[in-house]
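Example (one chain per record):
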Amino acid sequence: MSARFAELAFRETPMGELSLRRRRDPMLKIDVYEVKLGDEFLMSSLFTVAEVELARLGLAELDAGGGLDVVVGGLGLGYTADAVLADPRVRSLLVVDALDEVISWHQRRLLPFAEAVVTDSRSRLLHADFFALTADPAGYGPVHAVLADIDHSPRHLLHPGHADFYTVEGLRRLAARLHPGGVFGLWSNDPPDDAFTALLGEVFASARAEVVAFDNPLQGRLSTNTVYLARTEPAGSS
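Predicted structure:
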């Protein structure tokens, strides 16, 4: 039996106090992993459906066939990365996180999916600023999919410095990292934002928002997140 509550890791970062904790939920009788940055809850292992769906929906947009190269922006608890690695078409996965402590959590096997994410030969964890790396022409790519789960939403950012990414210019830099027919997927905690979907449509050949519903045992009802999906023009399209 796990302890009722344990702080597994704590560190001061430029964005605030980062902590990983595990608690035993007496009603559900499971261990729950939670991450806080300052006073904000970043993520919980109770609510991972949308993180998995970010990978599933994003990769489902790609044409059948193997040899897929994927970048995940934001390691978090590892659910998106683990779901990417579950797709046998994936050849390589680069996971980028600005907080080296988060990478360390996985390397120290403190999290449920740490083993697969750390030991799979297709996977590489990189301590870097995803937004700066994407803006750098030599940062990475071309890849078949970029899946991002860092900010709460395109309007609710963890840091003001991320704002440039959510502009036409920033999204064009992202699109330049993709192969023809490549996919950009973005997780959001907020309902679909029509203005942001339209912004994606200015850059990509297609764009849409998918609502992902999941059980919320804390509130006894369904909750929702949003996954934005955008695709570049496939090769050979007129």
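Caption: DSSP finds seven helices and eleven strands in the chain.
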